Amino acid sequence: MSHTIAIIGGTGPEGMGLALRWARAGERILIGSRNAQRARDAAASITLRAGGTSWVHGMENAEAVEAAQIVVLTVPFAGQAALLKNLKLSFKSGTVLIDATVPLAAAVGGAPSRTLTVWQGSAAQQAAELVPKDVAVVGAFHNIPAGALSGENPVDCDAIICTDDEDARKVASELAERIPGVRAINGGRLENSRIVEQITALLITINQRYKVHGVGLRLTGLPIAEPQS
Fold first, then answer.
1. DSSP string covering 5-18, please?
2. Could you give the CA distance from residue 159 to residue 100 in angstroms, rounded to a whole number?
3. In the chain, what are the helix, strand and coil shares in percent, each to the nearest 5?
4. Dihedral sign of CA atoms 19, 11, 76, 6 in order
5. Which 8-state DSSP code applies to residue 4?
């Protein structure tokens, strides 16, 4: 069964990459942006690449959130809090919010290979404080490179899923594995997202050292099937 997924920050590289992969998999995609025309242009570009009967539409952020069952946040950390405060009344009860925000120091003019200290513990935990209590928050998709998502090949990367809500974990895990090559890994509680977010800064450092752009994360020694607990 397909879902209606709003990708807020969907005109950026990560958002467009996820939108492309999920559109190809048959999901209904809403691209959200502060600028509705920019969102429509991005949706048209994704539709052209996804082909077939892909279902992708662009609209202003609040409209996208109101129309979705699942919201994926792929915005820079500097804009996360203000955006979620503005969108708080747009979330429907029972919505799953998947937060891919990473608190990189670049948000305050620092190096992208460093992270900021977030007093809530992580960007995902900050998101959980800013949305309604009946919205389930998941931290996921931090470590999947945008370049790999925008390509044609399977994505050689794991998606670590952190949340306090097991139903939301199932939703996020199913979406992760709709992307060819991606394996969903149970990362435990939402508080563990602070560790996963920091891994992104490490991957950026490795990209810089080796002069590449697509370093991802693959965990070894795990069974193919995901454990239930």
1. EEEETTTSHHHHHH
2. 11
3. 40, 20, 40
4. negative
5. E
> Which three-class secondary structure state does DSSP give residue 71?
strand
Mean pLDDT over all residues of the chain?
93
Q: Residue 100 is encoded by which pair of tokens?
A: 């891919």
pLDDT tens digits, 169-219: 999 999 999 999 999 999 999 999 999 999 999 999 999 999 998 899 999
Total of domains in the chain: 1
Question: The domain spanning residue 89 has which CATH number?
Answer: 3.40.50.720
Residues 21-35, mean pLDDT to the nearest whole number: 97
Domain that holds residue 26: 4-210
- Name the 3-class secondary structure at 36: helix
Domain presence at residue 173: yes
Question: Which residues does residue 97 pair with via DSSP β-bridges, in sequence order?
Answer: 71, 137
Determine whether 78 is exposed, middle or buried from the number of CB atoms within 10 Å of its CB (0-12, 13-18, 19+).
middle
Looking from the CA of 23 toward its CB, the CA atoms found within 13 Å total 30
Among the listed residues 218, 65, 189, the one whose alpha carbon sits nearest the alpha carbon of residue 122? 189
- DSSP letter (8 states) at residue 45: H
Structure tokens at 126: 């900050």
Residue 34 DSSP symbol: S
Please provide residue 72's backbone torsions phi and psi, each rounded to the nearest 5 degrees.
-115, 125
Q: 145 and 216 in contact (C-beta within 8 Å)? A: yes
What's residue 229's pLDDT?
44
